[in-house]
Amino acid sequence: MKWWQGLWGASDVAIAPMQRSDAIEASDIHRAVFARPWTDGEIADLLGTSSVTGFVAREQAAHGGAIIGFVLLRAAADEAEILTIAVRPDWQGHGVGARLMAHVLAHAHRERLASVFLEVGETNAAAAALYRKLGFAIVGDRPDYYRGTAEARTRALVMRHDVASARKAR
Length: 170
Ligand SMILES: CC(C)(COP(=O)(O)OP(=O)(O)OC[C@H]1O[C@@H](n2cnc3c(N)ncnc32)[C@H](O)[C@@H]1OP(=O)(O)O)[C@@H](O)C(=O)NCCC(=O)NCCS
Hints:
Strand content: 25-35%
Distance between the termini: 38 Å
CATH superfamily: Gcn5-related N-acetyltransferase (GNAT)
Order of helices and strands: HEHHEEEHEHEEH
Number of strands: 7
Shape: globular
Bound molecules: coenzyme A
Number of domains: 1
């Protein structure tokens, strides 16, 4: 971590819609955090699909403006599924993941979606804590999940954010 990251925190990080041209930087981050990373071509193909939306987090332009995290979600009818979320290792724990997920939920409200779903490996305590904090609840599980940082297969928890209820409660 660079000295200025601690001074800024995630409030100085800009969140923007993800473009296909962001795919190479995003795949570098994916490779840094997942045992089975997605290539830039796979990420660009997903972004070329009308049902897929992404957001990127960038550090300040004065410090290079590099992408430090991203999230991809796919919508179907009135539901969306988080396909992946990743924050560059040296930026983890500084609120970037929380800000990306807040943008996802704001997007879900704007699009009047009913639910946002995701799957998280049961041993991924950091991600599960982030999702719980944002109002996701466990609605099921799936054995034989294989998407985490470890090579071993594990059980995944299926979590849901009830966007429709949250909208009514506003
Ligand atoms: C999971 C991930 C996206 C979280 O992003 P992040 O920027 O590191 O998380 P944040 O700093 O925004 O933390 C938000 C909350 O998550 C939880 N959290 C984050 N890191 C944590 C850790 N190491 N242990 C426990 N809880 C943690 C906390 O509840 C935290 O809130 P708090 O700071 O108020 O306590 C990021 O760590 C990552 O890219 N991990 C590797 C890839 C991955 O596992 N993706 C998810 C697959 S389902």
